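Hey, can you fold this?
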Amino acid sequence: MTTINKDYEFLGRIFTEFFKQKHIINRLNEIDEHNVYGWEIWLQVELLLFFRKNAEQLDIAEVYREEPCLMDRRKGTSIKCSIDFIIRQKRAHSFIPVEIKQCFYAPRCLNQMVRDIEKYSLESVIYLQIERFGVLVCIKSQ
């Protein structure tokens, strides 16, 4: 199995476990019911607490939120940036960076996702050893 497939399965498993929690389901339903915007930071904090509290069961060695990184000037992007999450699975040598996108309009969300992937392309991130990149997209289902 390739590293990308392993990462995909790992991220899928840990995010699935997070979103199974009844209090998270209830809160997301309330957010939807009241048309609340800007809940991405709340979600990041909840994820961080869940991942750290359950690191052993989830096979997580390290997880950090809003991890600063430096960008290569040759890309023409800003020098400073931060990645929503970096997660290292036990027995892995490098982190998986994860950006979280929260949007009610799917095309806009996908555009933001593509911009982030381009922004954090392997050639541009010089602070972290990044071999791959994950994006968690939260879009209301119809």
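Oh, and this one too while you're at it.
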Amino acid sequence: MTKELSIEKIKKELIDNISNNSEILEYFENYLQDEEYHKHCLKEYGMKYIKDNFIFANDMSMSDNCNFISVEVNEEEGTSLDGIKMYYRVIIMVTLEDYKDIDTISVLLGKIATELYPDRFSYKNTVYYHKNRKQLENRKQLARVIKFTVG
């Protein structure tokens, strides 16, 4: 059975699966234990705090946030043997202040994408540097970007 695809459905499905992945939640939970403010918020709101403040259904590359996972989907028209067809280019970005786990998290995100969309194509998991507005010393921050197309 073929999934009905749309920008909204793809984003929702990916965000739901990322937000409910125990390894991703555990990573953020462990990372946030170092700061009293985050520790307090985790205690008060639980995993909802992570889901609402670190996992987003829109591009966050220009935000002040240094730790996030974001999902963006672009709709593109293309031709196939059946004529004109809609394709969806998915971009999942992960950036973390502590770079040591960024590769592990990006591979995990790629596995989630592959489980949800086994027929995906043009898959890439690439490194990317972006300028975070919060960083004052004109430094760029490391990110991993997972890209693939479904349709």
